[in-house]
Design goal:
Layout lengths: L23 E3 L9 E3 L6 H10 L2 E4 L5 E7 L7 E6 L8 E7 L1 E3 L2 E5 L7 E7 L2 E5 L8 E8 L2 E8 L3 E8 L9 E9 L6 E8 L6 E6 L8 E3 L6 H26 L11 E5 L4 H18 L5 E2 L5 H7 L1 H14 L3 E6 L15 H9 L5 E6 L17 E4 L3 H7 L17 H21 L17
Parallel strand pairs: 18-19, 18-20, 20-21, 21-22
Antiparallel strand pairs: 1-2, 3-4, 4-8, 5-6, 5-9, 7-8, 9-10, 11-12, 12-15, 13-14, 13-16, 16-17
Length: 458
Amino acid sequence: MKKIVSGGHAVDLPYEFLLPCLCIEASYLQEDTVRRKKCPFQNWPEAYGSDFWKSVHFTDYSQHSQMVMALTLRCPLKLQASLCQRQNWHTFCEDLPNATAQEAEGWYVLEGVDLHPQLCFKFSFRNSSHVECPHRTAPSWNVSMDTQAQQLVLHFSSRIHATFSAAWSHPSLGQDGFVPPVYSISQTQGSSPVTLDLIIPFLKPGSCVLVWRSDVQFSWKHLLCPDVSHRHLGLLILAILALATLLGIVLALTRRRPLSGPGGARPVLLLHAADSEAQRLLVGALAELLRAALGGGRDVIVDLWEGTRVARVGPLPWLWAARARVAQEQGTVLLLWSSAGPSPARGPDPRSAPLRALLRAAPRPLLLLAYFSRLCAKGDIPQPLRALPRYRLLRDLPRLLRALDAQPSTEATGRGRLGDRQCLRGRLELCHRLEREAAKLCPPRLSRDRRRGTGWNP
């Protein structure tokens, strides 16, 4: 725009944007006169800050794993561009380390990028910056979570071939801080939406899980914090349902199981109420010992060995499926009791009436009860369960094996020998050690029935 101004007069010059390259040039009307140029906003970023970014036209050419943005500038300037990420549209966009884009003739390119709507370019000029996100309305993948038993289930939905990873973290660790190990899963089934489930064990209350796409260099990282405030009540309800299911198993086995013959798999379903990591390790060691000592290809069914399936179908459906298998294959249910279970019934308890009635109707060989003497005393066992055949571990292990129809060649008696005596001895010693470690974590109980036994020695 050009205007003629008389000497001593002011003039108004309209403009669209205040820019660092917006200048005023003054000269006399005569030809070949000196021209004077002044750019009043060149070193005044506070004046042109917002107008500068409004004047820039951004065009998104991103595709696949390449993030590309072309800029049309009113001023011949060089800008810096780097990646940043938001957790949502209302939060600050945090810079990603070592994620500076290369510029060529106004095109800014960065390879190996997860094209997510909240993974954006941050353009900077002097002390001013602007965040421009890909012009996409929906991400190519999403994640949600669910809690089942002692595990966290991450549900991934993806329209692209990609690998996703997750690890436990904490909000104070930032975007790149996590606690090993890292769990991963891949989508390799094409461009249609595919749902994948990644199951990881719980770390500790208050922890969050960091989720990201791991087959690219730069990925949007999402921090998910499971709400476990309801878990204590949920575990109590689950324990009640599990006890009710156990009673259903007893009744169903009473009606359905034929007499055991010498052949068949005859699995052992090991039910327990372990409430600590030490007790769960002990249960796993006992299951290994039973499977080795029973011989004949006998199987021991325990939830600890089927964590993925339990998390996928749920504890109760898994328990019913195990019950059906035990009934079909003429197996046995072994209830491993501990002081972590319901408190002992002292006097009449109306809640124990259904339990007592169902247990009275059950044939005794179908349901056996065992307990570790360092973790449970006879007085800890509820009154309705005291009519069951009881086995104090590890002292009564030979009797328990006989009740479980162990093969004669592997039954632990003074006259018999074990198929692999050294292996069984190692498993037995492991059970002894884990029982002592679990007992250290149990609250002290005073009971005349709890004594230190020598246990079974193969």
